[in-house]
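Re: the 228-residue chain
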Amino acid sequence: MSLTAIVSYDDTENDHDALALGRVLAEAGAHLTLAYVRHAKRPERSEEQLEQHEAETLLERGAERLEDLDVDQRVVLSASTGEGLGWLAEQEHADVVVFGCDYRTAFGHVSPGRSAQTLLEGGPAAIALAPSGYHADSPEIRTVGVLAAPGDDATLETARDLAEAFGASITRDERHVDLLVVGSRIEAPHGRVMVSAHAQKEIENATFPVLVLAHGVPLQFPTPALTA
């Protein structure tokens, strides 16, 4: 079964970064779904149809930016982007939700926006965060870092799988990597994302993509889709 990643997309510059990270995950074998969350249903049928059409067109533009990749597209109705994406992740049995950073984030740095932070505090799937400006680069994964509590085999297993997919090396140097894999707190419920204060600080200090796992759930990447 293919690993699936939902990419939060609203056609902003920071969500172009999310697309770029989604492509990186696709290179490791993930199947992508672009998702846009609408926050209210319009009372008039014509207005509702227009807004739905605009949302679908926005996702089509995102899919076009991914060029050769076959991606699914979903429009979700929810008052909260984070809650809407969490609902979609559960409905689709998605493994990862991918975000760009908060729009005020300095170039090259990671800062989870409100929606991402919502899912970092109990979300049902792993969270991937792209640094600001990531789409302007030509990212390569040569080193994979690991930040995990003792006994957290899921995080190390995921890092090994990613390293194998990219032909990269694994290191516990959390500051000089191309991708950091972070484990959830050991007391988090199984299958839920919860980060420690130390992990939150390392995420906010990162200048590279961060992948935060749900507790006890390793991500198993299949044969890479683009390089097979």
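DSSP finds six helices and nine strands in the chain.
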